[in-house]
Amino acid sequence: MLTDTDFIDADIQALEEELTTITGMLRLCIAENAANTMTEETYRTTHAELCSRFEETESKLAALQKQRDKMKADAITIGGMMFELGELDTLPVIFDEKLWHGTVDHVTVHADERVVFRFKDGKEIVTML
Prior knowledge:
By secondary structure, the protein is an alpha+beta fold. It has helices spanning 6-34, 40-86, 97-103; strands at 104-109, 114-119, 124-128. Strands 1-2-3 form a three-stranded antiparallel β-sheet.
């Protein structure tokens, strides 16, 4: 569930189709202006609105692509963690360095005796000494 990008892929495809539509509308607007079938004021207004819509859609698309890329990277990290856990025959009772390095990204100890464990999947656990 954390690594399934199907819902994002569908949104990305919809935004790509919208960009194609807007591009077609821009071409039509330019062609109509070249053929003198619209006033200059109408052309400028329509062209500006379409350009604004294109930039907004392009920005949304870039954000979704970035989110999808992060989810795919997280999937690789989670897969690595699952592999490390799958290699264990039983749950460790003693410290296991391989398991530690496979799951924990880093630990931060604060002056207020707070300890923050950050795992490779981005999750954090906070505890007190």
